[in-house]
TrEMBL record:
Signal peptide: 1-35
Span of domain Isochorismatase-like: 63-243
SUPFAM superfamilies, per database record: Isochorismatase-like hydrolases
Keywords for the protein's UniProt record, in alphabetical order: Hydrolase, Signal
Organism field: Qipengyuania citrea
Presence of keyword Signal: yes
Keyword presence, Hydrolase: yes
InterPro entries: Isochorismatase-like_dom, Isochorismatase-like_hydrls, Isochorismatase-like_sf
Name under which the protein is recorded: Nicotinamidase-related amidase
Length: 273
């Protein structure tokens, strides 16, 4: 024989199930009938992939463009890493997309920050290294004699890609001190952003699962809101590993938003209208 308490619990359970069903129908009706679930890719944002969509609004005065390692050793066919990153860069049109972000940000007065990667002669005396630190030091990646000279810098692997120089060297773009491994923990990027009143970051650059992802993680831990532009970065692809594919998963699971360059350019333009 059912008691009043039992009947009450059953009614509450039925009401809860009805509420869940109503929410599910509401969500389903908000998604276009033609939309198919889709994971994030280089050129497409995710659709109904089972994860939350926090979103990211471009706010003039609070939002900056941050680009990691826009340097020859990554982005030029003559760079020392082109053999492993060239496929991903070419497929994503990374070089062109970074340039378009630079141009849009500069045109609208959005602050631009560059977090470069340099190795000086004393860095080659480190007593231990991680896997790709060993590789980078071995191939002379981003090498410069020391911090107090630009001797041999122009046109070197550590130099900016030539097409980016008009923006990077315009006197307005902030070039931080170099990061030494992958993230901004060893440079002054966070300080420069804070001093400029920035709390939101649009992030791109190289290399996706290394410096770009490490910057995303560190900036989020430091309290910044971050979106990643998925085709304004690229990663190393080897016989056994796909660094770019690995980064897409983490971009999606950690950043507030992931989207392509075209959508990001539209968002920037709309914010400054």
């Amino acid at each position: 024989m059912m008691t009043c308490d039992t009947i009450t619990r059953q009614r509450l359970a039925a009401a809860a199930l009805a509420s869940v069903a109503t929410i599910a129908l509401t969500v389903a009706s908000a998604v276009p009938a033609t939309a198919q679930p889709r994971a994030v890719s280089a050129t497409q944002p995710p659709v109904d992939d089972g994860l939350p969509m926090p979103g990211f609004d471009v706010e003039p005065g609070r939002t900056a463009l941050v680009i990691t390692d826009p340097q020859n050793d990554f982005l030029s066919p003559d760079g020392v890493t082109w053999g492993v990153v060239g496929e991903s860069i070419t497929a994503n049109r990374t070089v062109e997309n970074i340039e378009n972000l630079f141009l849009a940000a500069d045109r609208h007065g959005m602050p631009i920050f560059i977090s470069p990667h340099y190795y000086f002669e004393h860095d080659h005396r480190w007593q231990f290294e991680g896997t790709l630190e060993t590789l980078m030091h071995g191939i002379g990646m981003f090498d410069r004699p020391h911090a107090l000279t630009l001797e041999g810098f122009a046109g070197s692997g550590a130099d900016w890609l030539e097409r980016y120089k008009p923006i990077i060297e315009n006197g307005r773009t902030v070039v931080t001190s170099p990061h030494k491994v992958y993230g901004p923990d060893s440079n002054d990027l966070v300080l420069q952003l804070r001093k400029a009143g920035i709390s939101k970051v649009i992030l791109g650059g190289m290399s996706s699962n290394l410096c770009t992802e490490s910057h995303m993680r560190a900036l989020i831990e430091a309290g910044f809101e971050v979106m990643v532009v998925t085709d304004a970065t690229a990663g190393a692809i080897t016989e056994h590993y796909d660094g770019y594919a690995a980064s897409l998963v983490n971009f999606r699971m950690i950043a507030s938003k992931v989207d392509n360059t075209a959508s990001t350019l539209r968002a920037i333009a709309a914010a400054y209208e």
